[in-house]
Design brief:
With 176 residues, the chain is of the alpha+beta class. Helices cover 49% and strands 7% of the residues. The protein is built from five helices and four strands. It starts with a helix and ends with a helix.
Length: 176
């Protein structure tokens, strides 16, 4: 989930792709948990475990969100898809990193960022086409917004900086 916490650093296309993947991930996790909802459940911070200790014993997938474990086989984990391959005892426990409510909030973080970035990108992209040219102060506000929202790795920001530099050069030349 580090990518979500760093989503402000993503470019627009990457943020939109991440959003789609997160929505699929959350829906899949919800469906799989619903299929085993009768199991007792406990919180587990998967990040604190080395990758090799949190792999499904069937498919070898590294587990991030949830796993099913059994005290019959300590240290053995199954992904939700393969939990049916576990022993037949009734001591299985769902281990989860996030509640379903918390999981649902994860795509929202990225989704809230996208419209703001689209609006900023459109404003900057349209600068050259405007009939009335923006003031240097307006351009500087857009650049400051890019810095505040971490859009500085975009081509639009680089173009904005070029326009600001050119405008400042023109001002210097025009002032005697």
């Amino acid at each position: 989930m580090r990518m979500v916490t760093k989503s402000d650093a993503l470019l627009l296309d990457a943020a939109e792709a991440l959003l789609q993947d997160l929505k699929i991930m959350v829906e899949r996790e919800r469906a799989e948990r619903n299929s085993i909802r009768k199991l007792p459940a406990d919180f587990l911070e998967f990040e604190d475990m080395p990758d090799e200790k949190r792999c499904c014993v069937v498919c070898n997938t590294t587990l991030f969100l949830s796993a099913v474990v059994c005290p019959c086989k300590p240290g053995t984990m199954y992904c939700l898809q393969h939990s049916s391959k576990m022993c037949s005892c009734n001591k299985h426990v769902l281990k989860y990193r996030y509640t379903l409510e918390q999981l649902q909030e994860i795509p929202d973080v990225v989704e809230k960022r996208i419209p703001r970035m689209k609006q900023w990108t459109a404003l900057v992209s349209g600068i050259k086409d405007r009939k009335t040219k923006p003031s240097v102060d307006e351009l500087e506000r857009l650049a400051e917004e890019a810095i505040n929202f971490n859009y500085t790795d975009t081509e639009e920001y680089r173009e904005l900086r070029r326009i600001i530099d050119k405008a400042n050069q023109c001002i210097k030349v025009s002032i005697p």
